[in-house]
From TrEMBL:
Family: Belongs to the class-I aminoacyl-tRNA synthetase family. Glutamate--tRNA ligase type 1 subfamily.
Quaternary structure and partners: Monomer.
Keywords for this protein: Aminoacyl-tRNA synthetase, ATP-binding, Cytoplasm, Ligase, Nucleotide-binding, Protein biosynthesis
Localization (cell): Cytoplasm
GO terms classed as biological process: glutamyl-tRNA aminoacylation
Domain Aminoacyl-tRNA synthetase class I anticodon-binding: 377-445
Species classification: Bacteria, Pseudomonadati, Pseudomonadota, Alphaproteobacteria, Hyphomicrobiales
Database matches in InterPro entries: aa-tRNA-synth_I_cd-bd, aa-tRNA-synth_I_codon-bd_sub2, aa-tRNA-synth_I_CS, aa_tRNA-synth_I_cd-bd_sf, Glu-tRNA-ligase_bac/mito, Glu/Gln-tRNA-synth, Glu/Gln-tRNA-synth_Ib_cat-dom, GluQ/Sye
Signal peptide: none
Name of this chain's protein: Glutamate--tRNA ligase
Length: 449
C-alpha cells in the first residue's frame, strides 16, 4: 500500500522554515513511493485560525512545489469528533471532571511539596451521580479527560528508533474543554484514522503526545490502529531561538519577497540538521531520491539565513534553461536569444530578478561609461565584422592587445564599462554576440544604445 501522510498546520500565521521542513519531509517521503500527501488545517481554534492564513499556507506550499492530493479543514469535521467522543464515553474512556484551573494548580503545588509527580490524581473518577448533579446544579460545567491505561507504550520511531513512554507518568489528558470545544489531540487522531494516514511525520515538539495518541488510536480503531511515527529535529533561528508562526520569524512569505529561490528554501529546510551537506538541487525529486531518515540528526539545528542566500544564488547558477524559461518569459525575456542569454548570465545572478539588469544590457538601451576615450576609439575601429559568436571577444581583444600593448584589467575593464555600463558582470565572451555589433559600436562611440 502506498503511504499516506499529512501536514497539519494551524492557520494562525504564515508558515516558517521549520514548518516547511515538516511539510517537505512528508512530501519527499511519499514522492518516492507514489503515496498521498494531505494538507490538513488544524483550525478547530476558531478564535485564532484565519482563512487568509490557510490560503497563504496553500500558496506558500505551491510556491515550494508541493501540490497536496487533498485539503481538509478540521473546522468542517466536528460531527466526526462528536461521534468519537461519544464512543469513548460509551466505553468508559472519557470521564467528566469539574475542577477549576485554580483547584488543579493548588493540587499540583501540594503534590510537588510532597515530592510527588504533578499528575492528575483522577479524583473525578470517585464522584457519584449525585456529586456530579450537585456540581452541575451549582453551575459547574465538566471538562473531559481520556482515561489512560497505565502501561508503557512503545513505538519504533522512523528517526529516533525504539521509543517508549510510561503512561503512568502522565496526567489523563483533557480532550474536551468546559465549553465543549476540542483540544488538538482527539480531532487529530480521529482524522488520522478517517483519512487512513499510514505515517505521522512531524517535529519532535510532538513526541510527548505520541503515547497518548497511540492509546487513542487503539481505543477508537482497535489494536494496531496506530500509524508509524517519525519525529524529526526542529529548526531554530541562527541564534538558537525557537520558531513560531505567530512571531512571523523566517516566514516563507518573507523569504519569497526577498527573492530567495524556492528550491534553495527546500534544500536548506530539508538538509540543515542532517549528515548531508546543504547543497543546491535541481528539483524536489532529486531531494526526495537522496532523503534518508537515518541522516536526520537528533539535535536541534540552527538555520542560517546567510547560508540560504548563498545557496539561492548557487541554485540559480546551475539552473537549466528548461527550468528557467517560464519565469524568463514572465519577465519579458523570450525569443531566439533567450537560451544563450540565460547561460551567459545565470552565473552572475544573486536573485532571479537580476535578469532584468542583464536583459537591458543585451536588448535594451544603456548609457555607456567611457573611461579612456583613445583606447575605446581604437577598440571601436577594430570591431570585427559580423557574424559574431562566442570566439569574437577573444579575437577582438587579442588584436587589441597586440596593437595597444595593453593587457589584464587595463585592456578589459574599459571595454566592459563601455559595453555594459557596469563595473562587473557576466563573461563578455558570452554577452558580446548577444549585444551585437550595432549596439556595441554605438556604445563604444559613447552613445546610449
Ligand atoms: N521549528 C520547527 N522545526 C521543524 N518543524 C517544526 C517547527 N515548528 C513546528 N514544526 C512542525 O510544523 C508542523 C505544524 O505545526 P504548528 O502548526 O503547530 O506550527 P508552529 O510553528 O509550532 O505553530 P504556532 O506558532 O502557530 O504554535 C508540526 O508538525 C510541527 O512539528
Amino acid at each position: 500500500m502506498p503511504p499516506v501522510v499529512r501536514f497539519a498546520p494551524s492557520p494562525t500565521g504564515r508558515i516558517h522554515i521549520g514548518n516547511v521542513r515538516t511539510a517537505l519531509i512528508n512530501f519527499l517521503f511519499v514522492t518516492k513511493d507514489r503515496g498521498r500527501f494531505i494538507l490538513r488545517f488544524d483550525d478547530t481554534d476558531v478564535a485564532r485560525s484565519k482563512q487568509e492564513y490557510a490560503e497563504a499556507i496553500e500558496e506558500d506550499l505551491k510556491w515550494l512545489g508541493i501540490a497536496p492530493d487533498l485539503i481538509v479543514h478540521q473546522s468542517k469535521r466536528f460531527p466526526l469528533y462528536d461521534a468519537a467522543a461519544a464512543k469513548l464515553r460509551g466505553v468508559g474512556r472519557l470521564y467528566p471532571c469539574y475542577e477549576t484551573a485554580e483547584e488543579l494548580e493548588r493540587r499540583r503545588k501540594r503534590q510537588q511539596a510532597r515530592g510527588l509527580p504533578p499528575i492528575y490524581d483522577r479524583a473525578a473518577l470517585t464522584l457519584t451521580e449525585a456529586d456530579r448533579a450537585a456540581l452541575e446544579a451549582a453551575g459547574r460545567r465538566p471538562h473531559w479527560r481520556f482515561l489512560l491505561d497505565h502501561v508503557v507504550v512503545h513505538w519504533d520511531d522512523l528517526v529516533r528508533g525504539a521509543s517508549h513512554i510510561d503512561c503512568a507518568s502522565l496526567s489523563d489528558p483533557v480532550l474536551v474543554r468546559e465549553d465543549g470545544t476540542y483540544l488538538y489531540t482527539l480531532p487529530s487522531v480521529v482524522d488520522d484514522l478517517d483519512l487512513e494516514i499510514s505515517h505521522i511525520i512531524r517535529g519532535e515538539d510532538h513526541v510527548t503526545n505520541t503515547a497518548v495518541q497511540i492509546q487513542l488510536f487503539e481505543a477508537l480503531g482497535g489494536a494496531n490502529a496506530a500509524p508509524v511515527f517519525g519525529h524529526h529535529n526542529l529548526l531554530t533561528t541562527a541564534s538558537g531561538e525557537g520558531l513560531s508562526k505567530r512571531s512571523g520569524a523566517l516566514s516563507i512569505g518573507t523569504l519569497r519577497e526577498e527573492g530567495i529561490e524556492p528550491l534553495a528554501v527546500a534544500a536548506c529546510a530539508v538538509l540543515t540538521g542532517t549528515s548531508d551537506s546543504v547543497h543546491p538541487v535541481q528539483s524536489l525529486d532529486e531531494l526526495a531520491a537522496d532523503f534518508d531518515f537515518s541522516h536526520v540528526s537528533r539535535n536541534q539545528a540552527r538555520f542560517d539565513p546567510a547560508e540560504l542566500k548563498t545557496l539561492s544564488a548557487r541554485t540559480l547558477h546551475q539552473m537549466s534553461f528548461a527550468a528557467a524559461a517560464g519565469r524568463l518569459a514572465l519577465a519579458g525575456i523570450s525569443g531566439p536569444n533567450a537560451e544563450a542569454f540565460w547561460f551567459a548570465v545565470r552565473g552572475n545572478l544573486e536573485t532571479f530578478g537580476d535578469v532584468a539588469i542583464w536583459w537591458a544590457v543585451v536588448e535594451g538601451t544603456i548609457a555607456p561609461a567611457i573611461e579612456d576615450a583613445d583606447f575605446i576609439a581604437a577598440a571601436r575601429a577594430l570591431l570585427p565584422a559580423e557574424p559574431w559568436n562566442q570566439t569574437t571577444w577573444a579575437e577582438w581583444t587579442n588584436l587589441l592587445k597586440t596593437q595597444t600593448n595593453r593587457k589584464g584589467r587595463a585592456l578589459y575593464h574599459p571595454l566592459r564599462l563601455a559595453l555594459t555600463g557596469r563595473e562587473q558582470g557576466p563573461e563578455l565572451a558570452a554577452l558580446l554576440p548577444l549585444i551585437g555589433r550595432a549596439k556595441a559600436e554605438a556604445r563604444l562611440s559613447g552613445r546610449a544604445a
